[in-house]
Amino acid sequence: MCGLAADVRFDGGRADVGAVQRMAACMEDRGPDGGRVWDGGWAVLGHRRLSVIDLSDRAAQPMTSGVQDVTMVFNGCVYNHEELRHELASDYPFRTTSDSEVILAAYARWGEAFVDHLVGMFAVVLVDRTGERVVLARDRLGIKPLYLSPVDGGVRIASTLPALLAAGGVDTALDPVALHHYFSWHSIVPAPRTILRGVQKLPAGTVRVIDRSGTTDRVYWSPTYERDERHADWDARDWEDAIEDALRVAVRRRLVADVPVGVLLSGGLDSSLLVALLAEEGTGTTSTYSIGFDDAGGEQGDEFAFSDVVADRFATDHTRIHVPSSALPGALLDSVDAMTEPMATQDVAAFHVLSQRVAESRRVVQSGQGADEVFAGYAYHRPAVDVPRGRAADVFARSFVDPAASSHALLEPGLLPATDVSHVFLQDSLGAAGAETALDAVLRFDTHVLMVDDPVKRVDSMTMAAGLEARVPFLDQDLVALAAACPPELKAADGGKGVLKAIGRRLLPAEVVDRPKGYFPVPAVRNLDDDVFAVARDALLAPEAQARGLVRPEARLALLEDPTRYRTRVGGTVLWLVAVLELWLQRQGIR
Hints:
alpha+beta; 17 strands; 6-stranded antiparallel β-sheet
């Protein structure tokens, strides 16, 4: 796990060592255990290390192949690295027990197809000096980020967008299409775009080869959301058994580490299932961590009652973390500083504070992100049940998307495209072949487009800013592919996540399964309590905001006069949505 950086040139010039050093220095929090820079002339690689597998210095990166003129930086974890090492040992002289070196050995054997053999979360940059090319790869669900920015004669690459800004020379103008997505989808900007015109993201499940002749992409994984005849005779119990087995494997895979692995325990179904399955593995006492805030606006600020039940049942070493309201404004600003892109979800600060505290005693945790998207857990999924396939985009738009007219009324003229580009994107994505029903199409879009740039990005950003590696079993590639083939009515049953609830009733206390759906509660943010409102107000009234001219004066006045009146389709406040964008731009020094 780390922060990676690269500068590569294909015009015969030398890459910029200083730029890579600045990028790597910007990511020291992600990799507190050391950093190195490799200078290959036309390519320079940098790396910040968080030691998790093979803690010795010989496993440090950048790492050069033992059989090829290939040097690599890598962020993430390859869970099947031991199996691959055994398979590749006959023709590769391993010098470490790291998963990093297994990637080099896999590239030597299979070339660009090495990614097809990896099970894990990863972002990889390989410099192949013999082939005079660079190979980039991102894991199937986009758990590990990879940002790119063009430079004269080449490209710069980093694990975070702020690292690219630190290198300099980035076009920081706002991307109008990305801005439209941001305000349509509650701060989500899907790959390849970012909010800035000069930075893009490598899409999930993609291998990119760059050489003097240009760029070639290959999407190497895209599961079908259709019924498979191999499962034609399965009943509900068969699906429950198969998914339980796949989840058990996913949890076991994510124990691969040379350091202890804990769990972020919210007290909800998803993280509680992880604790239950870890207890079955017999690896000793599991450390679990829960966070809570003060109550606000009539809403409870913690779910300790449920997390305590799970911790007691499975005898975990449990830590409660309570954050008083007085600490929240500072936590909000710290979380904005840690964002790789602006993210307005109410629980970002919670993840940031939680990660900082957990990192005091653990380097790796498992987390329950992804279960709702994969197994139809959200209320906005339900309208797609039992509607014709062709209506998927319309029903999803009504339950999730904020109307384009609202964005045009909010922002100054000329900032957004004249057409509803987000709806066109939505229609194209949901209308694509490979999804059998309307709910299949919605879950595919949520899992492979929106989720990558919302909960996945949120958790990676906040945990890595603390030097903490978060692993997400519900996004195991085999589990996701199996869930995609599962009849959608089984996933949507029982108010959502029907299959997981059935599994939960076998493994968990009833009060944890049969409870109203909870979220990671930060009620002071959701309700814009006084101190939180002050953060938002100051952001919108700052001189930088006035000079930027993002929000119409009359819209700003309305938001500040009645801050909780205007809400997104998923319950967030429009004021906070605007404030986070403005705060992020200000704190990144973008004028």
